[in-house]
Amino acid sequence: MPTSQDHLAAALLPLVGGPANVTSVAHCMTRLRLGLADRSRVDEEALRAVPGVLGLVDDETYQIVLGPGVVGPVAAEFEELTAATQLARRGAELREARRQRNATPVKSLLRRVANVFVPLIPALVGCGVLAGLNGLLVNLGWLTGLTPALTAVASGFMALIAVFVGYGTAKEFGGTPVLGGAVAAVVVHPGVVKVTAFGVALSPGQGGVLGALAAALLATYVEKWCRTWVPPTLDVLVTPTLTVLVSGLATLYGLMYAAGAVSSAVGTAANWLLATTGPAAGLVLGGLFLPLVMLGLHQALIPIHTTLIEQQGYTVLLPLLAMAGAGQVGAAIAVYVRLRHDPSIRTTIRSALPAGLLGVGEPLIYGVSLPLGRPFLTACAGGAAGGAFVGFFALLGDRVGTTAIGPSGWALFPLLSGNRNPALTAAIYAGGLLTGYTVGFLTTYAFGLTAGVRKPEQSG
Asked: Which of 225, 312, 330, 357 is 20 to 30 A from 380 via CA?
């Protein structure tokens, strides 16, 4: 059994239930005072047998008597050993608090709408990469015999995305998925050109994913209504027929027209926003995206992204929002550099940083920046700066978009698209990332850590 002060803490920790059982660490002149989640996990017999342990006191805190001159270094080592677990516990508490705050009707609805689109992301990513590759081949004039086939492969999913949205909507809201898909298919059927609504001939795809979402949601409620009065013997015949008929006609003579107007407004608003207020729009979107994620409100953006991709071939909003991840990475690197005395936090950052660079920010958010407090705010500053950088070029007419949603960070490069050549689009996005990294790092290094967190470093 180790007896040196450097190793005594490591010997004691498993005997009090391990780091997950330790909620607080303090000491007086002679005693190591521990807050424990479950005192039944303490092995008192083994503790008393550890050389250097002079006694045990089970009081408001669990106290291990070590003696003067010993308890201070042991307590410091004990804090280092448990810091990572305590930080993780704090992150878990924050996640749970966020989950409870998000349990509102509006946020629950947004979450359910997001659940409709999230399963579509793999197809959006795959088709988006192929579309980008095909566009590059067309621009270069290479493999001209293959590009028509690539066009068909990359575009097929987007041509029928309304059907998938309808299927997922009915499934999420408790209807029969295939009926939701059947009604949503009306939106993309070529025959709608022969239908006139509000004095205007409809066009295939009018209303897009928003129209499909509304159509399938209506179908779900019609189906549930039918099941309340249709006799069981007729249910298999009457309910599907009425569901498709009522919802389909409502889609043709109302929903497609209304959803088309909303979809057009979304595209117009996004283009206007960047063309007239580029840096300001980028600053706000990049700076506020992390808080939106914390509040669960980012889910409202998924249908907007999908609508823009369907309309324009890419969404100009995602690259701006992706800058929030860059600010988070810069902030984490600054914490890593500043807290050289804290190996547990540095280990957490080393583990989470590769995922952060690829756009998966939750490990850094909940494992580092949010529990520490200030680095979350300075990460937002980095995201705002990166968003302003990309927005500035949008103001100049160089729009940067992505052909799919889901990935972020470096993983977004294969999905980049825009109204200029691919090299310039990639360079602008890379410049935004570098700006986010830099500002996130500098603001966190200068302002992101309290004196209490930095104290061990300063005293060394």
From this structure: 312
